[in-house]
Design goal:
The complex is a heterodimer of chains A (451) and B (895). The longest helix of chain A is centred in the N-terminal third of the chain and has 19 residues, at 78-96. Chain A has 3 domains: 4-132, Beta-Lactamase (2-Layer Sandwich); 153-297 and 413-449, Mu homology domain, subdomain B (Immunoglobulin-like), CATH 2.60.40; 300-411, Immunoglobulin-like. In chain A, the strands form 6 sheets. Chain A has a 9-stranded mixed beta sheet with strand order 13-16-9-8-26-24-19-22-21, covered by helices on one side. A 5-stranded antiparallel beta sheet of chain A has the order 2-1-5-4-3, with helices on both faces. Helices cover 12% and strands 41% of the residues of chain A. Chain A contains 6 helices and 26 strands. Chain A is mainly beta. By secondary structure, chain B is an alpha+beta fold. The termini of chain B are far apart. In chain B, helix 5 (83-96) packs parallel to helix 7. In chain B, a hairpin with a 2-residue loop joins strand 2 and strand 3 (692-701). Helices cover 48% and strands 11% of the residues of chain B. Classes of the chains: A mainly beta (451), B alpha+beta (895). At the A-B interface, strand 2, strand 3, strand 4, helix 2 and helix 3 of A face helix 2, helix 4, helix 6, helix 8 and helix 11 of B. Chain B: One of its GO terms (cellular component) is Golgi apparatus.
Chain lengths: 451, 895
């Protein structure tokens, strides 16, 4: 069980503080903050997520720049606490619509009420927004969402595509819309984060997809939802490396290495026809998480070259090729490359007519940054950069620069080919069809090319 | 707080407390509610609003749940400081616990349990009893936790009132939430009780396994953790349990997955069928890997646990090494753990892939990570013999980049590789030596020095290389000093030539005189003794074949590993420390625990990898039996000229006892007569032999008991005389005597006071009190052998010194008889005859001598040969010594 839960701002101010057991000495928040701020143990510059000071164990996660912290004196399950901290953040967000310092302060009474229902004497009672609704009576004071950036993976939908009602994901599950009646809608998001490493010669060394089917329901009457996935979906990869290469446009079974499901999901017909059925609780939750190491066609190829062009000079050449359909556009692309430490100046040369691209040389960490607002499928973009060095490079220039890393978001695209074939709402509430949003997005997690 | 903050935080001119008081007593419900909110707001920012206690409690009687909750929150906070007032609330609590609304019943019992006031606790029992049997599961599950609260306040009360039985009944409740809370409460009570309270029988087991499927995710963790204490009776039962638990691996909640893994691992110990075990391993791998897709905090927990799991069952993830490759955006604490696991999973099959990764990491930006990557390469080399060569070539490649910290880490691991594969890869030493100048970290320096010493015979300029380190010996950290000492000894044993001889003198000198570090000093003494007693034995010891080191990546003690595996999915498995190393139950908040010296969990790195890198220098493994070590001399004894006793065994200072050490000359003066020394008589005198000052001593035991354990110490004195080594006197039987020549050094423990020739000596043995006696320092023992001057030099020196440096003294009663005899006599004390001239009827003799540190001394003796009266004039750059010089000359001329 946990002893205390608290939320600190980035500056270390107490925003929320709840002591459940009175067994941790006063000042724990301060002790914690000082320790995290000036961490110096074990050669690490960053505090590990859990540590012990004077017999008190401190757990923390960072959520939208806030520190969510729990303390305990006992040999508790740490993953339990981390899950809990994340879940508390999610519940609060479900209630407040937007989670930040401002909304927490404004709704402190509600937050305390929630915390008392979520945890009793350090024991978690429930983190289900749905269940909590019957015990929690305070109304949220929703703060102005327009000027705030929303939280969570679904936030990516608020940008780029016009179809997505971005505001929807930032609305509270309990507060009523200003217009009076709630809009009946349900969001199903297939979010895939891909990690991929290209070797210096362009081979794919490792590739992995971490996927989540996320759901957020604003349906009244708790209807049952049926979610059908690819019929040829199979789970469990035979051990050993996967052989064979599968193009993302070709056919072939989707093979998941592993997957898991939200507790509300019933798998009765999953084995026969790959259909999940559930009565979605209120709030945002992952219906299913999955992981794939099956080879996939990388959305981007990266070519990176660095060459010495003189005694104190070198040139970097970067090329990014979008290998997906031209109907699809990736956005917020950022390419980064660490340069040799003795780099003093960088001059950039973008391709002629380039728009929406910016370049920068971060002096402090000697990093080249290249941002592109969007890349349409099938296109290629290049960047040349001339480097000036303060010392000779000893011919190790490739070892002292790179790897090139890339972040991007590609809406309406998923590399795994996992699909929601249909989304069926059991019994209709109201007269008209609720809005159903099924959205796909692919994001880079660790997308790296070595040089 | 920003401007947008809630109105509840605003203050008014009137004064907050009176204003709130007024509002709390308002006739309007809404106003009262707002007021309570304001009170709570003030409370949460640390303001003292306890003076409003009665006013707030007055708001308690309301049907409005929102308001009631706020009042309860206030009560929990202030009841402790206002116990008498809190009693006022009891009636409402008791009433509320019977409210038709289950939420109010539960709220009342939940809140009462949180108020740690004895008087309230008394009133809690009846409502609690009722609530444990309430119709509503929400009330029952709240009551279950309340029993744990009450136990924390008053365990006896819980047992007396039979609450434990009620709790146990709740295990069979039809609501899984109630079951989960009952299990959690019972588990906590069991943890705090020495009596068996919550024993899991096969009956409870099956009930709980059934409840598992219905429970919330959190309840599943409570139940799984409680069940993990259950010991299955046989393999069959274990298999059954595992079968019921395995579906939990598919849960989205990582805590459920890890608790399930724990349970399965524990039952697997009982399962005998290898097929079943293999199958289970196969089932556990994907969920374990999936944990690495969770938030970094959970990844960290998973990695620390996987680290333990693969130590016990390496096959589970043998094929999954790729998932442990670091992502560039992993937090550093995740990367570090991944590296550890990569080393553990590295095999001949995947080493090329792994090396490629490590090489890449070794050129990243984060210095700590880079260092760890370099070490990882070394550890793989040590672990996988067939891959060692490939690892080394990667290391050499990295050295060539010439990034300072990479080079240093590489050298540290290469030293380990040399120890693992002796006589295999020494060809790379030359490459290593190129980087010598760039080493500035102690561990790297120490490693390089170790390599030089170990392979001194193969490195042509080993002596030069070592010498370059010697200059800074006194400033080096202890780690480096120890290695320098050992390496120099090795060098000397392998190449006993002049260079190394001098070096060893310097090193031993430094290591014994210039240091406060007892380890260094003791090690130096051991070497010194070894070398001086038996150089061959020294070779056998110092150059002995070292045990080959092994792979340290499975580095937990088996017993610790066992204990940690039992604690999988707990903090213990993250810290890699047994629970009792960090768990201290502190009851009641006021109590501050005294466990300040408990190590912090986060540094488990060090405890997890005690052998990670050569924290202890490799040569420190020459554990020399304690009995050989010198009996820790209580003084910092220096070694002036060890070569004498190291090499030239002919003039050893360790003169056999039965051999007369002062073959001629007068007997030694008695300094401690037997009458004073309880039968121990000591005669002693400073003497010079073969360029070295000795303290010639004679011990005579006239007492009735054998005497042993002699030790000597000299007080600070003008010349800084001190013993150069321990006193070597064997046990003295009654009636026997022993002589010794104790080597002495100068300028060691100089006294700051006025010059004096007194030498205070303290001597002890095991049987008697400490004896103190005084000796007189005769300066002529300090005249060095090279004091002879050419006439021209003499004249030049004489002239160059100002007249103020000339001092003279008359010795009226001394007669110089024979000139030749006198010249010869003085020459034995290193006073050398230069010239003689006649001045009227007087003879004038000129002599030269040299004092330590090369200070010249010019002497002019004027006398009429055969007649009493000698005038002695001396000229020296150090005229302050004249007093001692005259004393010395007078003594010599008289003898």
């Amino acid at each position: 069980m946990i002893s205390q839960f608290f939320v600190l701002s980035q500056r270390g101010d107490n925003i929320v503080f709840r002591d459940y057991r009175g067994e941790v000495p006063k000042g724990s928040a301060e002790i914690f903050f000082r320790k995290v701020k000036f961490w110096e143990d074990g050669g690490l510059e960053e505090a590990p997520p859990v540590f012990n000071v004077d017999g008190v164990n401190y757990f923390h996660v960072k959520v939208v720049g806030l520190l969510f912290v729990a303390t305990t004196r006992v040999n508790i399950s740490p993953s339990f606490v981390f899950e809990l901290l994340q879940r508390i953040a999610r519940v609060i967000k479900d209630y407040l619509g937007i989670l930040n310092e401002d909304s927490l302060r404004k709704n402190f009474v509600l937050v305390y009420e929630l915390l008392d229902e979520v945890i009793d004497f350090g024991y978690v009672q429930t983190t289900s927004t749905e269940l909590l609704k019957s015990y929690v009576f305070n109304e949220p004071l929703v703060i102005d969402a327009a000027r705030l950036s929303p939280l969570g993976p679904a936030a990516i939908f608020s940008q780029g595509t016009k179809r997505m009602p971005g505001i929807a994901v930032t609305k509270s599950v309990v507060a009523t819309e200003p217009g009076g009646r709630r809009r009946e809608e349900i969001f199903v998001d297939i979010i895939e984060k891909i990690s991929l490493t290209f070797s210096s010669s362009g081979y794919i060394l490792t590739s992995e997809i971490d996927g989540t089917i996320q759901m957020k329901s604003y349906l009244t009457g708790n209807p049952e939802i049926r979610l059908a996935l690819n019929e040829d979906l199979s789970i469990g990869r035979s051990q050993g490396p996967v052989s064979g290469y599968r193009s993302s446009s070709g056919s072939g079974a989707v093979i998941l290495d592993d997957c898991n499901f939200h507790e509300s999901v019933r798998l009765d017909s999953f084995d026969t026809n790959r259909t999940l059925s559930l009565i979605p609780p209120d709030g945002e939750f992952p219906v299913m998480n999955y992981r794939m190491t099956q080879a996939f066609k990388p959305p981007f190829r990266i070519n990176a070259l660095i060459e010495e062009t003189g005694s104190l000079k070198a040139e970097v050449f970067l090329k990014v090729s979008a290998e997906f359909a031209s109907s699809i556009t990736a956005n917020t692309i950022k390419v980064q490359m660490p340069l040799p430490k003795y780099t003093t100046r960088v001059s950039f040369e973008l391709e002629p007519g380039a728009t929406g691209q910016t370049t920068d040389f971060k002096e402090t960490n000697k990093r080249l940054e290249w941002s592109l607002k969007k890349i349409t499928g099938g296109s290629e973009h290049t960047l040349r950069a001339k480097l000036t060095f303060s010392q000779e490079s000893h011919g190790n220039i490739t070892k002292e620069s790179g790897p090139v890393s890339m972040t991007f978001t590609i809406p309406m695209y998923n590399v795994s080919q996992l699909q929601v074939k249909y989304l069926q709402i059991g019994k209709k509430s109201g007269t008209h069809d609720p809005y159903r949003w099924v959205r796909y997005v692919t994001q880079a997690n660790s997308y790296v090319a070595r040089i | 707080m920003s401007r947008n903050d809630s109105k509840y935080f605003s203050t008014t001119k009137k004064g907050e407390i009176p204003e709130l008081k007024e509002e709390l007593n308002s006739q309007y419900k809404d106003k009262r509610k707002d007021a309570v909110k304001k009170v709570i707001a003030a409370m949460t920012v640390g303001k003292d609003v306890s003076s409003l206690f009665t006013d707030v409690v007055n708001c308690m009687q309301t049907e409005n749940l929102e308001l009631k909750k706020l009042v309860y929150l206030y009560l929990i906070n202030y009841a402790k400081s206002q116990p008498d007032l809190a009693i006022l609330a009891v009636n409402t609590f008791v009433k509320d616990s019977q409210d038709p609304n289950p939420l109010i019943r539960a709220l009342a019992v939940r809140t009462m349990g949180c108020i740690r006031v004895d008087k309230i606790t008394e009133y809690l029992c009846d409502p609690l009893q009722r609530c444990l049997k309430d119709d509503d599961p929400y009330v029952r599950k709240t009551a279950a936790i309340c029993v744990a609260k009450l136990y924390d306040i008053n365990a006896e009360l819980v047992e007396d009132r039979g609450f434990l039985e009620s709790l146990k009944d709740l295990i069979s409740d039809n609501n899984p939430m109630v079951v989960a809370n009952a299990v959690a409460a019972l588990a906590e009570i069991q943890d705090n009780s020495s009596r068996p309270i919550f024993e899991i029988t096969s009956h409870t087991l099956s009930k709980l396994l059934t409840a598992l499927n219905e429970c919330t995710e959190w309840g599943q963790v409570f139940i799984l953790d409680a069940l993990s204490r259950y010991k299955a009776s046989d393999a069959r039962e274990a298999e059954n349990i595992v079968e019921r638990v395995t579906p939990r691996l598919q849960h989205a909640n990582c805590a459920v997955v890890l608790s399930a893994v724990k349970m399965i691992l524990q039952q697997m110990e009982l399962i005998t069928s290898t097929d079943v075990v293999r199958n289970l391993c196969k089932k556990m791998a994907p969920p374990l890997v999936t944990l690495l897709s969770a938030e970094p905090e959970i990844q960290y927990v998973a990695l620390r646990n996987i680290n333990l799991i693969v130590q016990r069952r390496p096959t589970i993830l043998a094929h999954e090494i790729k998932v442990f490759f670091c992502k560039y955006n992993d937090p550093i604490y995740v990367k570090m753990e991944k590296l550890e696991i990569m080393i553990k999973l590295a095999s001949d099959r995947n080493i090329d892939q792994v090396l490629l990764e490590f090489k890449e990491y070794a050129t990243e930006v984060d210095v700590d990570f880079v260092r760890k990557a370099v070490r990882a390469i070394g550890r793989c080399a040590i672990k996988l013999e067939r891959a060692a060569e490939r690892c080394i070539s990667v290391l050499l490649e990295l050295i060539k980049i010439k990034v300072n910290y990479v080079v240093q880490e590489a050298i540290i691991v290469i030293k380990d590789i040399f120890r693992r594969y002796p006589n295999t890869y020494e060809s790379i030493i030359a490459t290593l030596c190129e980087s010598l100048d760039t080493l500035d970290e102690p561990e790297a320096k120490a490693s390089m020095i170790w390599i030089i010493g170990e392979y001194a015979e193969r490195i042509d300029n080993a002596d030069e290389l070592l010498e370059s380190f010697l200059e800074s010996f006194p400033e080096e950290p202890a780690l480096v000093q120890l290695q320098l000492l050992t390496a120099t000894v090795k060098l000397f044993l392998k190449k006993p030539t002049e260079g190394p001889q001098q070096m060893i003198q310097v090193v031993l000198n430094n290591a014994t005189m210039e240091t406060d570090n007892p380890d260094l000093r003791d090690r130096a003494y051991i070497y010194w003794r070894l070398l001086s007693t038996d150089p061959e034995a020294a070779k056998d010891v110092v150059l002995a074949e070292k045990p080959v080191i092994t792979d340290d990546s499975n580095n937990l003690e088996p017993s610790l590993l066992d204990e940690l595996l039992v604690n999988i999915a707990t903090l213990s498995s993250v810290y890699h420390k047994p629970p009792d190393a960090f768990v201290t139950r502190a009851h009641s908040s006021a109590q501050k625990t005294e466990d300040d010296d408990y190590p912090e969990g986060s540094e488990s790195e060090s405890s997890a990898n005690p052998a990670n890198g050569p924290a202890s220098p490799p040569t420190s493994s020459y554990t020399i039996p304690a009995s050989v070590a010198p009996a820790s001399p209580p003084f910092a004894a220096p070694v002036p000229d060890l070569l004498g006793d190291l090499m030239g065994m002919d003039n050893s200072s360790l003169v056999p006892i039965d051999q007369p050490t002062t073959p001629s000359g007068p007997p030694l003066p008695i300094l401690l007569p037997a009458s004073t020394g309880q039968g121990l008589q000591i005669s002693a005198q400073l003497t010079r032999r073969d360029g070295q000052v000795f303290y010639s001593m004679l011990f005579e035991n006239n007492s009735q008991v054998p005497l042993d354990g002699f030790m000597i110490q000299f007080n600070k004195n003008t010349f800084g005389l001190a013993a150069a080594g321990p006193l070597q006197i064997p046990q003295l039987q009654p009636g026997t005597s022993a002589r010794t020549l104790l080597p002495m050094v100068m300028f060691q423990n100089m006294s700051q006071g006025p010059p004096s020739s007194v030498l205070q000596v303290a001597l002890k043995n095991n049987q008697q009190p400490v004896w103190y006696f005084n000796d007189k320092i005769l300066f002529h023992v300090f005249f060095t052998e090279d004091g002879r001057m050419e006439r021209a030099t003499f004249l030049e020196t004489w002239r160059s010194l100002p007249d103020s440096n000339e001092v003279s003294k008359d010795f009226p009663s001394i007669v110089i008889g024979g000139v030749d005899a006198t010249v010869e006599l003085l020459a034995t004390s290193n006073i050398f005859f230069i010239a003689k001239r006649k001045n009227a009827n007087q003879d004038v003799f000129y002599f030269s001598a040299k004092m330590p540190r090369g200070i010249p001394l010019l002497i002019e003796l004027t006398t009429v040969v055969g007649n009493p009266g000698v005038k002695c004039a001396i000229k020296t750059p150090s005229p302050e010594m004249s007093q001692f010089l005259f004393e010395a000359i007078e003594t010599l001329l008289r003898s």
